[in-house]
Automatic annotation (TrEMBL):
Residues 20-33 have a biased composition (Acidic residues). Residues 54-64 have a biased composition (Polar residues). This is Phosducin domain-containing protein. Pfam families: Phosducin. Belongs to the phosducin family. Residues 56-294 form the Phosducin domain. GO terms for biological process: regulation of G protein-coupled receptor signaling pathway. The keyword Glycosyltransferase does not apply. Keywords: Coiled coil, Phosphoprotein. Residues 1-10 have a biased composition (Basic and acidic residues).
Length: 297
């Protein structure tokens, strides 16, 4: 039997004969000097393969020789191959995933083109709907203004105001009538031109009350007479809506009726519904200019 001491000391166990009764035999031989019978030897041969077998009773196995090194190397190569196969599977799966998700340059260009076409289609539909909405809104607004103008007095010319009738001309007028007053002074630059423009606009917009009053007649301050004229005051329903002081700073000294018309239209105080003719002053001037150019050619 292999003992723990033999394994720790590394004793050579090949062809080892074990006898657990050697000492007992010797003692027996000593005691049988008187002619007793010698006991039978129980020696047993234990092969090296059984001593080094994995299933030995000690349960301890080790092999540090060439065979052990070769076995470890084979196990290492086996694990390495298994790891390489696993990595190859992961790479193939990743390549397959990228192949399914990636697109070529032509695919990207086609997708961008389709996206742009879809966006343009949506914008066209939106603007078409917006145009329809504004058309309906404009038509409805024009109808309301036309209904309002049915009961509105017509003027058609410029009205001169004085200090005495100024307040009554503003407060007692129809609440739907827009009143535009030109505050002028004969010595102020641009006032004479504005009077002529007002006369033209009064004929073009008969439902708007165009008036004028002299600053000195209204007893305005000397500073206003000198620096504020020409000025425009806009009233409706007895309330002052807006005022344009020293309007030549905005229009310049050389302006025409269409410039004043554009200013009032942009401010919302003149509308096409209030125009008595099919064309506004500005459109008429454009047509005259085009006609003159044609005649010269």
């Amino acid at each position: 039997m292999v003992t723990l001491d033999d394994r720790l000391l590394g004793e050579k166990l090949q062809n080892y004969c074990s006898s657990s009764e050697d000492e007992g035999d010797r003692d027996g031989n000593d005691s049988d000097d008187g002619g007793g019978k010698r006991g039978k030897s129980t020696s047993k041969f234990i092969p090296e393969t059984e001593l080094n077998a994995p299933g030995s009773s000690s349960g301890f196995t080790e092999n540090t020789g060439p065979k052990g090194v070769i076995g470890d190397w084979r196990r290492f190569k086996q694990l390495e191959n298994e790891k390489r196969d696993e990595q190859d599977k992961e790479k193939k799966a990743l390549i397959k995933k990228l192949t399914m998700s990636c697109r070529s340059y032509l695919d990207d260009e086609e997708a961008k083109k389709q996206e742009q076409e879809a966006q343009e289609k949506v914008e066209d539909e939106f603007f078409d709907a917006e145009d329809e909405f504004f058309k309906e809104y404009r038509a409805k607004l024009m109808h309301q203004m036309q209904q309002r103008l049915l009961n509105t007095p017509r003027f058609g010319k410029q009205v001169d105001l004085t200090r005495e009738n100024f307040t009554n001309s503003i407060d007692d007028e129809n609440k739907n009538v827009t009143i535009i007053v030109h505050v002028f002074e004969q010595s102020a630059v641009g006032c004479k031109v504005m009077n002529n423009c007002f006369q033209c606009l009064a004929e073009q917009y008969p439902y708007v009350k165009f008036c004028r009053i002299q600053a000195s007649e209204a007893q305005l301050s000397h500073n206003f007479v000198k620096n504020g004229c020409p000025a425009l005051l806009v009233y409706r329903g007895g309330e002052l809506l807006s005022s344009f002081i020293s309007i030549t700073n905005k229009l310049g000294d050389d302006f025409v009726a269409s410039d004043v018309e554009s200013l009032l239209q942009e401010s919302g105080y003149l509308s096409a519904a209030e125009c008595d003719k099919n064309t506004t002053v500005r459109d008429s001037q454009i047509q005259k200019s085009n006609q003159s150019d044609t005649d010269e050619d």
